[in-house]
Amino acid sequence: MNRLADFEARIGYRFRDATLLEQALTHRSYGSQHNERLEFLGDSVLGCIMAEALYARFPALSEGELTRMRAALVREEALSDAASDLGAAAAIRLGEGERARGTDIRPSILADALEAVFGAIFVDGGYAAAREVILAVYAARLERIEPQGPRKDPKTRLQEFLQGQQKSRPEYRVVQVRGAAHRQTFDVECVVAELGARATGSGTSRQRAEQQAAAALLESIGQ
Question: Catalytic site residue 43?
C-alpha cells in the first residue's frame, strides 16, 4: 500500500481526486504546489464543525464557554496530536532543508497538514464528507472536553511548579526513536538537575513523549 492509500485508510475517506490529498500533504518547502490554500480552507471547515458539535453537545453553555472549548480543540497542539495519531508524518512531503532539521516533524507542520487534509476532503466530497471524517478524528477529544476548562498539560504544570520553586527549566532530550518511518515511537527523557530528578516518556511524536515524561516526573516528585 502506498503512502497516500495508507493515509486514506487511516482517515476513512477515499479521494475521488487524489491530487488534492497529495497537495494537502505537501509542505511549502517541497514545491510550489503546497498545502497553504487548503489549510486556509480546512481551518474554517474545522472551526465550523467543532462549533456545530459543541453547540449540540452543550445546550446550556454560553457563547464564551463554547468559544473557549472550540479554541482548545482547534489549537496547534490538538491538531498535531491528532495528525500524529493518524501517522501523518510518514505521508507529508518536505523539502530537503526541512527534512535536515531532524527526524521529528515540527508540530506546526503536522497541524497545518491535517487542516489542509480537512480542506481537501471538503473540496473533494463536500461538507458532509468533511464532517464525517472530522468528527471521527475528534471523537475521543470531544468526549474528553471539559466545560469547566481544560486542565493544564504536564509540561506547563511542571514549568510553573519549577518557576514557583525558583528552579531552572526542565531539559528534554530524545533518547531513542523506534519503529518504521510511518509508525515511529519517540522515547524522551525529562531532567531537572537541581532536584536530581529525571523521568522518561514515550509517544508517537516528540511532543507527546515530552508530555508523558513531564507527567512521570511530576508524579515522581509528588506533584
Answer: yes
- State pLDDT tens for residues 42-74: 999 999 999 999 999 999 988 988 988 898 899
Of the residues 8, 39, 112, 115, which is catalytic?
Answer: 115
In 3D space, the residue among 53, 17, 44 whose CA is nearest the CA of residue 142 turns out to be 53
Closest of 175, 169, 223, 170 to residue 203, by C-alpha = 175
H/E element, 41? helix 36-57
Give 162's contacts (C-beta < 8 A, 6+ positions apart).
168, 169, 170, 192
Q: Cβ(174)–Cβ(154) under 8 Å?
A: no
Please name which of 203, 196, 185, 194 lies closest in space to residue 220, comparing C-alpha atoms.
196
DSSP E strand stretches across the chain: 171-178, 185-192, 197-203
Q: Are 47 and 66 in contact (CB under 8 A)?
A: no
Q: Nearest-CA neighbor of 22 among 4, 8, 37, 10? A: 4
Rounded CA separation 12/137 (Å):
9
Full set of structural domains in the chain with CATH: 3-144 (1.10.1520.10), 154-220 (3.30.160.20)
User: Does residue 168 surpass a pLDDT of 70?
Assistant: yes
Active-site position among 43, 104, 112, 124: 43
Active site residue 76: no
